[in-house]
Amino acid sequence: MEHTYEHEHAHEHAHNHLSHHHSPEEKKRQLNRLSRVIGHLQHVKRMIEEDQDCADVLMQLSASRSALTGLGKEIINEHITHCITHAVQDGDMQAIEEFQKAIEKFC
Predict the structure, then answer these.
(1) Which of 13, 49, 65, 96 is the most core-located residue (most Cβ within 10 A)?
(2) Which bin fits 24, alpha (ψ -120 to 50), beta or left (φ > 0)?
(3) Which residues are CB-contacts of 10 (< 8 A; sequence separation ≥ 6)?
């Protein structure tokens, strides 16, 4: 993967958690997905408040969980593509180990 000047500056990662910037497009897409999940969960909350059928509530919760998992997978893939690639190139084993721990908690 060839890195251009623009690519390098659209995604900065200092592996010390003080500087971690992603492309505005990626961030916007992830935030939009998260907003949809939040809206979905608000709907589930209303369903519970309105004593709607438990099976329907569970189906909606399942859809919400699936959407969150999808967002998590997208974040994992994006992080591997950019941050972990740079960490490997820089020999930053701490960043790799921290990411492995994060994946274990996510799964």
Answers:
(1) 13
(2) alpha
(3) 21, 22, 23, 24
Burial of 40 from C-beta contacts in 10 A (0-12 / 13-18 / 19+): middle
The total of other beta-carbon atoms located within 10 Å of residue 93's CB is: 11
With vertex at residue 49, the alpha carbon angle to CA 47 and CA 54, rounded to the nearest 5 degrees, is 50
3-class secondary structure, 4: coil
User: What is the structure's pLDDT at 11?
Assistant: 45
CA–CA gap between residue 8 and residue 10 (Å, rounded):
6
Q: What is the C-alpha radius of gyration for the chain, rounded to an integer number of angstroms?
A: 18
Pairing status of strand 20-21 against strand 12-13: antiparallel
pLDDT tens, residue by residue, 52-99: 999 999 999 999 999 999 999 999 998 888 888 888 888 989 999 999
